[in-house]
Amino acid sequence: MAKQVRTAVEQAVALLAGRPKSRAALAAALSQRGYPEAEVDAALEQVSRWGYLDDARVALARAMKELPEGRARQQVAQRLEAVGIAPEVARRAVDHAAAELGLTEEAAARLALSKKRKTGLEAARYLASRGFDEDLAARLAGVDEVPDGG
Q1: Within 10 Å of residue 70's Cβ, how many Cβ atoms?
Q2: What does 105-131 look like in DSSP terms, one character per residue?
Q3: Of the residues 11, 29, 53, 144, which has the fewest C-beta atoms closer than 10 A?
Q4: pLDDT single digits (tens) 117-139
Q5: Is 148 exposed, middle or buried (CB count within 10 Å of its CB: 0-12, 13-18, 19+)?
Q6: Full-model pTM
Q7: For residues 54 and 24, is the Cβ–Cβ distance under 8 A?
Q8: Where are the alpha helices (DSSP H) in the chain?
Q9: The pLDDT of residue 30
Q10: Contacts of 13 (CB under 8 A, 6+ apart)
Q11: pLDDT over 90 for what percent of the chain?
């Protein structure tokens, strides 16, 4: 292994030691540190072979954390995609986490409301801002519809 690639691999391992990262996030972090694309690619392949880099594992861990915080499945999936997780991997992780946690979309919305103690229009807007379906948000908040801007 060339010296530059070994340095990129060492940097990748150090970055992953702090917090698991998606492949895209790790690639971006290495690029920002000045490693050329070829070295970044080689480092990513090496840490993947060692089992240190796994987008499915990262996505599942984040979904398991974010769903109980009162976020809708769709919003969690979008947040995973925003950090470079492939849409299909994100969706599978969110579905798996929701099933493992026993959180239906309605249960997650009720959980979100219980943590914030919001009612009426404020509750409906809050749920909509967390990615919940507007019909569900309105029903749980006891309003006819979620006003625009929610």
Answers
A1: 22
A2: HHHHHHHHHHHHT--HHHHHHHHHHTT
A3: 144
A4: 788 999 999 999 999 999 999 99
A5: exposed
A6: 0.78
A7: no
A8: 3-18, 23-32, 37-49, 55-66, 73-82, 87-101, 105-116, 120-129, 134-141
A9: 95
A10: 47, 52
A11: 71
